Amino acid sequence: MRVECNIHADCAEPCAVLHIRQITPAIAEAISLLEREDASSLSLVAGRGGKSYFLKPEDLELVRTEGREIVGYDRQKNRYRLDRPLYELEHILGNVFVRVSKSSIINIRQIRHVSAGFNGTLELVMKNGMEDYISRSFRKSFKERLGLK
What we know:
Blueprint: H1 25-36, E1 44-48, E2 51-55, E3 60-66, E4 69-74, E5 79-82, H2 86-93, E6 97-101, E7 104-107, E8 111-116, E9 122-126, E10 131-134, H3 136-146
Antiparallel strand pairs: 1-2, 1-5, 3-4, 3-7, 4-5, 6-7, 8-9, 9-10
């Protein structure tokens, strides 16, 4: 594959344009890497009490669906409404976050403990005291992410 890079001192925002016939796993990986390139300076716009807040991903402990809303909780259990779908947040938030069920993503650095629950689920308690569960279908990927067997 031919790669062309144009460096301009007056470039306000980096932009990558790919001319491809189809998306291969390697190209999908490159796209994912480019999209997360600036994740350290990423701020999420979140609503709470009629105000907009700019949150850093590391400030969030838990992101989940509640009814028709996507909400995030910080270390003080403050509830923020997010305007992005869960699958998009999972992609944006990066490696520190992991999907634990169809409706929840958690910050693995903020886990207090995990214990066995009903029907093969694992109960999860975050450092801020929030509780959730790891469903059976996401248990294997969760353990792999933490390096457990």
